[in-house]
UniProtKB/TrEMBL annotation:
UniProt protein name: Arginase
Keyword terms, alphabetized: Hydrolase, Manganese, Metal-binding
Matching InterPro entries: Ureohydrolase, Ureohydrolase_dom_sf
Lineage summary: Bacteria, Bacillati, Actinomycetota, Actinomycetes, Micromonosporales
One CC-aspect GO term: cytosol
Pfam families: Arginase (PF00491)
Keyword Manganese found: yes
Domain of life according to the entry: Bacteria
One Gene Ontology term of the molecular function aspect: manganese ion binding
Organism: Couchioplanes caeruleus
Sequence similarity: Belongs to the arginase family.
Length: 252
């Protein structure tokens, strides 16, 4: 199943920013968010997404405009009885806390939230169990802030490149594979909100994700599309078409 969450953080996106290929079944999660601060609204959105993931049959693909949806995907997989590890494709580290972030951008906290950082923001509200560091693999990160460099150097989070990723590198057990599409080189994928030069071509990202799917252990494929409108979205459509499993068997 493909679950579409047309949001960047708590902002509703126009539908054409997520140019999905014609796939069935597709579930659009678009709840009415409550008044309140960003994290209150995000918790409500994540609760709806977590419930959809928990109820979905078989492997699930989540497509949204934001890395924070990976936290909801993790909560949903845990509610379904799984104890997944994380393989995190991203040009950035996403391992900030509120205290370490200089920009204050919430998406930069995404992976750290999944590992237990700032639990009051989302984890406590969703009943999330943090993923321990040794069960996290960060793939393709190349644009890191000094605080992220320090944290990763002292942590047990493992790192690799997109090209160098082998299926054997993945942590044991079921997997949530998160792919922020800014891991792709921006010369090939224009319009990214946070472009980071020096990345791999899209074909290498697709090949690496397929190597992981071939293990049969990918419970959730979470795809974040942090981008702006472009004149020609055909490249985006082709990339999503290549990443999203064509049927349940392909998603395993």
């Amino acid at each position: 199943m493909v679950i579409v969450v047309p949001y960047h953080q708590d902002e509703r996106l126009p539908g054409d920013l997520l140019p999905l290929p014609g796939r069935e079944p597709v579930l659009v999660v678009d709840p009415e968010l409550p008044p309140g601060d960003l994290w209150t609204r995000l918790a409500a959105l994540d609760e709806a997404v977590a419930a959809a993931v928990a109820d979905a049959p078989g492997p699930v693909t989540v497509v949204s405009g934001d890395c924070l949806m990976a936290v909801a995907a993790l909560a949903g997989a845990q509610r379904a009885g799984l104890d997944p590890a994380l393989v995190w494709f991203d040009a950035h580290g996403d391992v900030h806390t509120l205290a370490s972030s200089t920009s204050g951008y919430p998406g930069g906290l995404s992976l750290r939230l999944a590992m237990g950082g700032d639990p009051a923001l989302l984890a406590d509200r969703l009943g999330l169990r943090p993923v321990v560091e040794e069960r996290v693999l960060l793939v393709g990160a190349r644009d890191l802030d000094p605080a992220e460099v320090s944290f990763l150097a002292a942590s047990r989070v493992r790192r690799t490149t997109v090209t160098g990723l082998c299926a054997a590198d993945a942590p044991p057990g079921p997997l949530i594979v998160h792919v922020d599409l800014d891991v792709v080189d921006p010369a090939e994928l224009p319009g990214l909100l946070f472009p980071a030069p020096g990345g791999p071509p899209a074909s290498e990202v697709v090949a690496a994700v397929r190597r992981l799917r071939a293990t049969g252990r990918v419970a959730v494929l979470d795809i974040a599309c942090p981008w702006q409108r472009v004149a020609d979205p055909s490249g985006r459509t082709a990339l999503l078409d290549a990443l999203i499993p064509r049927d349940r068997a392909a998603g395993q």
